[in-house]
Amino acid sequence: MITLGVIGTGYWGPNLVRNFINQPNATVSAISDLSRDRLQHMSSLYPHLKTTQDYRELIDDPGIDAIVIATPVRAHFKLAKEALEAGKHVFLEKPLTDSSEDSLALVNLAKQNNLVGMVGHTFLYSPSVLKIKELLDAGDLGDIHYVSTTRVNLGLFQDDINVVWDLAPHDISIFNLLLNSVPEKVHAVGHSYIQPDIEDVGFLTFSYPGGRLAHIHVSWLDPNKIRKTTLVGSKKMLVYDDCSNLEKIRVYDKGVDVHRHYDTFGEFQLAYRFGDIHIPKLQDGEPLKAETAHFLECITDNVECRSSFAHGHQVVKALETACESIRCGGREIAIDYKLDQ
Amino acid sequence: MITLGVIGTGYWGPNLVRNFINQPNATVSAISDLSRDRLQHMSSLYPHLKTTQDYRELIDDPGIDAIVIATPVRAHFKLAKEALEAGKHVFLEKPLTDSSEDSLALVNLAKQNNLVGMVGHTFLYSPSVLKIKELLDAGDLGDIHYVSTTRVNLGLFQDDINVVWDLAPHDISIFNLLLNSVPEKVHAVGHSYIQPDIEDVGFLTFSYPGGRLAHIHVSWLDPNKIRKTTLVGSKKMLVYDDCSNLEKIRVYDKGVDVHRHYDTFGEFQLAYRFGDIHIPKLQDGEPLKAETAHFLECITDNVECRSSFAHGHQVVKALETACESIRCGGREIAIDYKLDQ
Amino acid sequence: MITLGVIGTGYWGPNLVRNFINQPNATVSAISDLSRDRLQHMSSLYPHLKTTQDYRELIDDPGIDAIVIATPVRAHFKLAKEALEAGKHVFLEKPLTDSSEDSLALVNLAKQNNLVGMVGHTFLYSPSVLKIKELLDAGDLGDIHYVSTTRVNLGLFQDDINVVWDLAPHDISIFNLLLNSVPEKVHAVGHSYIQPDIEDVGFLTFSYPGGRLAHIHVSWLDPNKIRKTTLVGSKKMLVYDDCSNLEKIRVYDKGVDVHRHYDTFGEFQLAYRFGDIHIPKLQDGEPLKAETAHFLECITDNVECRSSFAHGHQVVKALETACESIRCGGREIAIDYKLDQ
Amino acid sequence: MITLGVIGTGYWGPNLVRNFINQPNATVSAISDLSRDRLQHMSSLYPHLKTTQDYRELIDDPGIDAIVIATPVRAHFKLAKEALEAGKHVFLEKPLTDSSEDSLALVNLAKQNNLVGMVGHTFLYSPSVLKIKELLDAGDLGDIHYVSTTRVNLGLFQDDINVVWDLAPHDISIFNLLLNSVPEKVHAVGHSYIQPDIEDVGFLTFSYPGGRLAHIHVSWLDPNKIRKTTLVGSKKMLVYDDCSNLEKIRVYDKGVDVHRHYDTFGEFQLAYRFGDIHIPKLQDGEPLKAETAHFLECITDNVECRSSFAHGHQVVKALETACESIRCGGREIAIDYKLDQ
């Protein structure tokens, strides 16, 4: 039985509390939040929880094995550092931190202390993404030419981070999993329409090894909520629409074949395949349930963490470099992760 | 009664023939095509048409008032030039030419000879685009912050022009009409996945006067056909989905209001409006019918042409500069139209 | 502060427990269920709850003001009767009972004891249905000609009740609210494809006062989940699609006008109006939250109950008569509610 | 080369003219219409056509092999009879006639004179219906339990026939093909909301051999145009949405299995299968092109006609009996085709 303390029970924290409570081999003993109101609300739902406005009580509590952090991102580094130094395993909401220097420090700190550090990149635990991974690994789509994603909606604007830091972590995390690698270069443009200096629209292009490109369009200024990812492979194409209730993944038996002719004309002959569409049934299951179970499993069974601090750091570094490219007017910049492999 | 000759009856020409024949004040007397098969097919549909493989017969025919050209783009300049020099009005399919030098020459040639020169930018005659123009001009959307369009499908790849020249003319033409101006700068990236050196995916960003931006995503490599344009205004937002049969335009009573507070906190307060959606009924009517009628009206009544050679040249120049930006790795480039205003 | 006891914490009961706990002026003190597993599960979520396998402990508990019943329908009558006789207010899941004799008895019993009796017809508390009611009452749609609903999906088959008892209660309850009356006659056909004698497909036609008809198509045998209701009014038409996330209600400015000509031809002239579509924004809000609040309000403030036992009885009687019509091969049968008005 | 004359060039006739002209082994030599305007319009499109207001000129013309009739249905019988008596093959728009007595007479007349009689049941030539037929014949769906169709829209009201005669011919024709049989009984209800005595809403239930049922909902009073057919088979389910541009057919790997247990409990155990969805690519091709080609092929190669007069008569008889059931308040009535087999 693993005992957890949760810091931050505002927007997302209550979901984590509920999910960890429902895990058979875990219990949440205490929560902390700066807001007395939030603590009272949580107490009314879970009267047995110890509540405090001082997170130090959780970190100092010898009965607590792991700390779950769901605060604004600017507090992540300090809280995680203290928890790791106190010998606790740490689960942090994404993004890991707001600077790659900090995220790299956390990677190293967890490693030195032999503790589990995990980031809440929930999509890595969703049936949709795992199904796509399965199809890719089985070679169903052939080689991936490029992936393109649109993640837009109206607001919620944030006053400390731009739309890239708000929405793109999901896509970078997903692509790193699906493409089994990390981007080498990035090239990005952004625009600030509503608040000066805080981009609300961004277009990012990441280069992955093997010439594979990933485009990401993020926006806080679109009337419709769209979360749509297109994968173009040499054999088939796939569209993942996360806003669809029942048909999230569609596999198109479509493609383009290139026939090279080494004759005098040197023409390319292209053959188009238009074919059936296949919509695979997905497993049921709340990603957050799988995610919280995975964290516990990493602690008890020492399995490798799918959304480790290293993974989280790679996402942070990619975001940071993309924003640097935006400031440089779209210049392509290499991404240096500084991770010991 | 205006008598027309049509050069090129391959893919699009037959539509022009049919529409001009159906106009009450016009007649098509002759057609030319390099392919004998096409001429025979057209004869079986319209036995009264004179057919020839030599387009010169049409240009030299004193009974013909106007020449309609629907050939591959590389032949546009030569044919249009000869027709104008022979004193014929000219209707050309889009894009006007494949170089801005040539398109500028045609603009001037038509002007010097006092002849009507029109480009087949059909969207300028579609009920959807005209409805959006009406809503914009009435101020319903407020000031436009930005427009964004996705025009993608699988193929048809072309071997002489890239996806930018193939698909983006529509959007530039539409934006120039809607925003009542022409872009000043462009910044573009493109990728060649299937054929070397012929881009099949492109992302273009045009800057219009007043800081308004227009993003265009074109692709020959998407499993779904998408033609979707989003206009984000200060009052409302609008989505134009040209692939929808019955609900092409949706007006969202959504928006973001910025309340500036000049207090010590200097914070921006943002208020989101989420509201009703309105789907206006559009007029019926085939754009091509309106377009062909407009050409005749320009000749007979001397009205100003909505898709004049000058409009066509502005599109060509914007395309050309976008492709230059792609070759320069995405550098922003000013667009110099060299038009006497 | 009202104290409640909940009998039945299987499929739907936990939602009621959660919602009543979250109401500021109520508390749940005890729950009962035949299954020890369910009680343990509920205890893990809400450790403060008293649990028992014997529902009598709740009914006999003088500290409990009201009993909430979420058991299979066959137990409804017995449990509600005992609770009312013990002086408790009663909230019952729909349908009220499985026979109109029983439901009428409960109506009278609650009335005699001056207790609140309410049925969980949740749709009467949904923002969508209330919005439609508002539009109808404002006369936006004109006079209603007919309403038609499709409520189909695959399974879940039940072994004690047919698809009519399973799915049609929602529609009858909604129509009675919207049309502000109860049906006078019914005419129904049903078919048993999978289990003998348990209909899995049904087509019901109810006649409301004023010649208004309501068609209901229910099925457990459709590959798609559909919940769609069409209201055809003399001025406008409305479609309510409960499976749509963001566009549940669409108002069509469409209609048919009849112009009578009392001339020799005696012809009817019909004019079609095709017009805009309007999608009103709906209030947020969980229907179950509004429903549970309403139950408490009925107790404390003596307001009239929107989904009273009388309403529930009218639904039961309509269902019962529809099933009688099915057994009679579709014969039209008058519905006799036997309610004192 | 087969020479045709076309009677009636109003709404649908021009499509038939165009399609027959485009067939390589046919020519249209003459057309007739009561309206001089329509004849002039057709002449402007096809200057070589002989036009007349007197249909007798076509029937008496010895150079004409076959007569195509696209007039209002009330004229069908008289025109077809005269054409057959003059030794012409006949193509008639659906429904064949407005009475089964007349349609039976035409069946016999064509047979006696050894002439081809074909009805324009276009759906029998559509790629969608033929694909479904192929799937059914291959056993992919298992045994068909029931089929259900919704064919509704707003107007166009007609003043001589009701909505059943207007819309249901399509479905009956399709079902007869798919189920490879004809309905034995029908049970129908209808309502007249707008014009007295002319039903604008109808619900029909046909019984096919083997206990298979077919439900048809037709309406002129629905704001949306819907053409959707659901086939529920023992193995899979299929939905055919004719209003979808690209995904007309969806095959659901869903179903219900019944496991009978002959034990003391005698319970039915139901197993639900939820599975993938498959959207087959359909052949391109205009149904009218295939239909007109088939008519010519029936004449030249003596192949059996897919939409023969006998097929058309079966549709007429089913419609007639359905309307009789409506007049009898929904009574089930056997359908007696009186066809010699």
Q: Could you characterize the architecture of this molecule?
A:
The structure is a homotetramer of 341-residue chains. Chain A is an alpha/beta fold and 341 residues long. The first copy, chain A, has 2 domains: 2-122 and 288-307, NAD(P)-binding Rossmann-like Domain (Rossmann fold), CATH 3.40.50.720; 124-286 and 317-334, Dihydrodipicolinate Reductase, domain 2 (2-Layer Sandwich). Chain A contains 9 helices and 17 strands. Chain A has a 9-stranded mixed sheet with strand order 16-13-12-11-7-10-9-8-17. Chain A has a 6-stranded parallel sheet with strand order 3-2-1-4-5-6, with helices on both faces. In chain A, strands 14-15 form a two-stranded antiparallel ribbon. In chain A, β2 (26-32), α2 (36-45) and β3 (50-52) form a beta-alpha-beta unit. In chain A, α1 (13-22) packs across α8. Chain A is globular and about 65 Å long. Chain A starts with a strand and ends in a 7-residue tail after the last strand.
By CATH, the architecture of the largest domain in chain A is named: 2-Layer Sandwich
N to C succession of SSEs of chain A = EHEHEHEHEHEHEHEEEEEEEEEHHE
Q: Per the principal axes of the C-alpha atoms, what is the gross shape of chain A?
A: globular
CATH level 3 topology of the largest domain in chain A: Dihydrodipicolinate Reductase, domain 2
Integer average pLDDT of chain A:
90
Poorly predicted runs of chain A are 260-268
State the helicity of chain A in percent bands. Answer: 25-40%
Quaternary state of this entry equals homotetramer
Radius of gyration of chain A: 22 Å
Strand content of chain A: 25-35%
Helix count, DSSP H or I runs of 4 or more residues of chain A: 9
- Biggest sheet strand order of chain A reads 16-13-12-11-7-10-9-8-17
